[in-house]
Amino acid sequence: QAFVCLLLCLSRGSSCPPSCQCTERAGAKAVLCSARHLEEIPKDIPRDAVFLKLDANSITRIPSNAFRHLAHLEELDLSRNAIEKIDGAAFKGVAAALRTLDLSSNRIRSIPKEALLMLNAKLRLANNPWHCECALQEVLWEARLDPDSVQDITCHTAPRDEYVGKPLLQVLDAGVNFCSVRQRTTDVAMFVTMFGWFAMVIAYVVCYVRHNREDTRKHVEYLRSLPSTQHPAE
């Protein structure tokens, strides 16, 4: 019975998803799921997969721990999908072995920097409708980007219209710092908030003083209206 259970576990660990094709490439398992009309990442990808191609599908989201069980994964191709959202822990569990991650030609506007900065993999992020902001700038500075595709990381939207349509690298080379812009915006917001509280305190003090003056005036007028007491002369 133990032997049968072992065989079942091994077969489950190395089984191939019905929508994919599994093959050997240089002695390593390759799972090919390209152009299979997939809308999400298959749940039953073999644990010993080294190469995984999920390109040219209709995947819209990479959830947390999507590849956590794939500790041997070295190359992951998610290009030419419809990915719009990537969770912060999307690639948790594959950081150590992953060498190449292709996210090009999707619909990604922004991405949590913690999702990519934990990786040592070479990243391809070209041909996405990026919103140029501080988080994307930090990814460009700290992540390992594929030098052949970095020029195709273009600002689809940006805080200023003059950056739209330009490669992010070109904008940054011109001296733009999106992170300092965000810091200034934060500082201004804090200043406005502090000024608002200060104005409220001043308004309260003014109202308090006016109210006390009115009460004092009414009290004095009341005392003046009282009949005076005359003391007879001795």
Automatic annotation (TrEMBL):
Any Pfam family hit: LRRNT
Membrane topology reported for the UniProt record: Single-pass membrane protein
Keyword Protease attached: no
SMART domains recorded: LRR_TYP, LRRNT
Keywords: Glycoprotein, Leucine-rich repeat, Membrane, Repeat, Signal, Transmembrane, Transmembrane helix
TM stretches of this protein: 188-209
GO MF: signaling receptor activity
Domain spans labelled LRRNT: 15-51
Coiled coil ranges: none
SUPFAM superfamilies: L domain-like
GO biological process: signal transduction
Keyword Repeat among UniProt keywords: yes
Places the protein is found: Membrane
PROSITE patterns xrefs: LRR
Signal peptide: 1-15
A GO CC annotation given for this chain: plasma membrane
Origin superkingdom: Eukaryota
Family label: Belongs to the LRRC3 family.
Protein name: LRRC3 protein
Organism annotation: Crypturellus soui
